[in-house]
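stage 2 :: seqdesign
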């Protein structure tokens, strides 16, 4: 078949598969465009959960008439112009795909007027060649994007939409997160003509807790600790809840990197480690955290939906976040002093503390890691916050800044060499606090040695494990539900058809219940097999190679064995198939692997796995040998 250039509309519909998953995906792209345009007010109107209408209006800078038609072209954007711009992205959008992709699966209209234009213009895109028509319109300064009949020309995609209520709930949750990222923007949400949410802008001298309460609720505010920590080009600020504010589900975990919403595994692992000694196994932390990193030190172009990032200094970022969370929770038990503001009569709750003598003696400045949080994202303030006495549980405030001595010690400690030394030196307060024999989990990932071995600390000990073995253990954890309730099956978009011998077809029929346990559905049709669905861990496998190997495995099973034996054997075999020789392992990959293992296995299984796969490093013998030398 000859190679041809894809038509514009088909290319955009393919791109829309990455950009537009559901109506909430469209709202995210359009609202982020409004934020990048400098809007201070964004109005979002939704009809029928977004399947009928999505309208986003803002008061940003708008789009000029000459740029309107180009705005609907693929890879057209005003946000980057060179490779240098791509390596230091500060805007939320930068690929120039969103509007073109959305217009390929809907009827899209853009109406806009920049301040320098006397009239507004409207652009409409629809049709086989996606021709854009521009005509005069009435509109104030700003921009309005209307998306009508989403997926009208792709019925297969529309069929996968959930109920209007469910789709709107995703939009509502999305705007809650965006409202937390920008306190300086008013956001209004309407559904079927009814006002549902109104997040009012917090002025420069306003109280950020008003927005926080509106999004996260009163309970979160009552138990929130404010945190602020800076090291060179990194800053961590926001609110973390004390254990009293822990939740039964992870629905109150919001993290932002350079004001971009994130669900990054490395960040979540660091936060979870910071909380691990404070929460019960069935509790989840609640937090709203803002991480600011020098743009050149973070790559945001690693995920189609931009949900994950890659840090150039992943280890430093991980430990920085962990230590701030851990020390903040440790100091949350310090005594509260209520003072009265003489001008307003308000009761101000503050916490008085000094670094412990041991901390100063060991140059450990982390004792003052938690400070006054700037009033809201983007605004700096050195004043202590205040609020009227309400009778609720006290929320400790922190002094405006650590002492000069603590700051100098902190900067010295956070240098790369000092970080390495601090991780090995078990005599410091921080490490001693965690050096307990009953520590849960696998411990803390410190480094990757020789590109394939993971160095970890557990209590006051150092352990080493082969990442390949850890990967196999992780896959076993992902597959273990098959031994109980069974794995969820995921239908293939296009079933895989393979030829098979009569004995292979008989084996598939005989072991059909075993395969179903593992979410594998293979239909026998004469001398052919139709692979209809597989479990999620197998989705990335090359089924043309995997299924013949599976048939060989089934043919080698002992018919006299019981089904539990077959299940255990199949689980082990699948784990080996999923575990392949890997390229050099990064720290982020190691952290992710350990994090997922801790999610899949319980404490007793983790303890046995550590004894089986980890090698304890005997530092005492090494130190004695060096001393003799």
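stage 2 :: out
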């Amino acid at each position: 078949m000859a190679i041809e250039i894809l038509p514009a509309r088909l290319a955009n519909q393919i791109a829309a598969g990455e950009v537009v998953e559901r109506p909430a995906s469209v709202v995210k792209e359009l609202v982020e465009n409004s934020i990048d345009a400098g809007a201070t007010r964004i109005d979002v109107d939704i009809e029928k959960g977004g399947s009928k209408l999505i309208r986003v209006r803002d008061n940003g800078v708008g789009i000029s008439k000459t740029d309107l038609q180009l705005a609907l072209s693929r890879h057209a954007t005003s946000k980057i112009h060179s490779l240098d711009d791509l390596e230091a992205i500060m805007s939320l959008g930068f690929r120039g795909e969103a509007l073109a992709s959305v217009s390929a699966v809907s009827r899209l209209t853009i109406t806009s007027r920049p301040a320098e234009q006397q009239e507004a213009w409207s652009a409409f895109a629809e049709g086989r060649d996606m021709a854009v028509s521009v005509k005069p319109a009435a509109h104030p300064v700003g921009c309005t994007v209307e998306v009508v009949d989403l997926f009208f020309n792709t019925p297969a995609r529309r069929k996968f939409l959930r109920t209007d209520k469910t789709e709107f709930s995703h939009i509502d949750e999305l705007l809650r997160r965006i409202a937390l990222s920008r306190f300086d923007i008013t956001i209004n949400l309407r559904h079927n003509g009814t006002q549902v949410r109104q997040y009012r802008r917090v002025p420069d001298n306003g109280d950020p807790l008003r927005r926080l309460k509106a999004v996260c609720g009163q309970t979160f505010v009552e138990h929130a600790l404010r945190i602020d920590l800076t090291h060179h080009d990194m800053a961590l600020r926001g609110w973390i809840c004390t254990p009293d504010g822990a939740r039964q589900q992870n629905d109150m975990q919001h993290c932002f990197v350079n004001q971009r919403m994130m669900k990054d595994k490395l960040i979540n692992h660091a936060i979870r480690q910071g909380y691990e000694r404070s929460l019960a196994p069935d509790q989840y932390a609640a937090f709203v955290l803002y991480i600011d990193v020098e743009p050149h030190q973070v790559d945001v172009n690693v995920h189609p939906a931009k949900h994950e990032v890659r840090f150039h200094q992943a280890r430093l970022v991980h430990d920085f976040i962990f230590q701030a969370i851990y020390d903040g929770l440790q100091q949350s038990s310090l005594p509260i002093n209520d003072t009265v503001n003489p001008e307003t009569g308000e009761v101000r709750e503050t916490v008085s503390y000094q670094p412990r003598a041991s901390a100063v003696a060991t140059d450990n400045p982390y004792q003052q890691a938690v400070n006054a949080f700037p009033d809201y994202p983007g605004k700096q303030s050195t004043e202590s916050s205040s609020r009227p006495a309400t009778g609720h549980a006290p929320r400790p405030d922190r002094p405006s800044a650590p002492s000069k001595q603590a700051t100098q010690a902190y900067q010295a400690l956070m240098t790369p060499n000092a970080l390495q030394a601090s991780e090995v030196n078990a005599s410091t307060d921080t490490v001693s606090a965690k050096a307990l024999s009953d520590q849960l989990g696998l411990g803390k990932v410190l480094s990757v040695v020789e590109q394939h071995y993971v160095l970890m600390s557990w209590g006051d000990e150092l352990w080493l494990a082969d990442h390949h073995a850890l990967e196999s253990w992780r896959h076993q954890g992902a597959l273990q539900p098959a031994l109980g309730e069974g794995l969820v099956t995921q239908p293939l978009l296009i079933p895989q058809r393979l030829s098979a011998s009569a004995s292979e077809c008989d084996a598939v029929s005989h072991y059909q219940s075993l395969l179903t346990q593992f979410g594998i559905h293979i239909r026998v049709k004469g001398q052919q097999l139709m692979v209809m669905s597989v479990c999620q861990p197998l989705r990335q496998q090359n089924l043309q190679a995997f299924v013949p190997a599976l048939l060989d495995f089934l043919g080698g099973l002992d018919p006299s064995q019981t089904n539990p034996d077959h299940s255990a054997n199949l689980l082990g075999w699948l784990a080996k198939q999923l575990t392949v020789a890997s390229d050099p392992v990064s720290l982020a990959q190691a952290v992710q692997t350990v994090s997922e293992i801790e999610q899949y296995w319980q404490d007793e299984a983790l303890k046995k796995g550590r004894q089986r796969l980890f090698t304890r490093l005997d530092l005492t013998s090494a130190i004695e040998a060096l001393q003799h030398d």
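stage 3 :: structure notes
- Residues 8-199 form a domain with the Heat Shock Protein 90 fold (CATH 3.30.565.10).
- The chain is about 35% helix and 25% strand.
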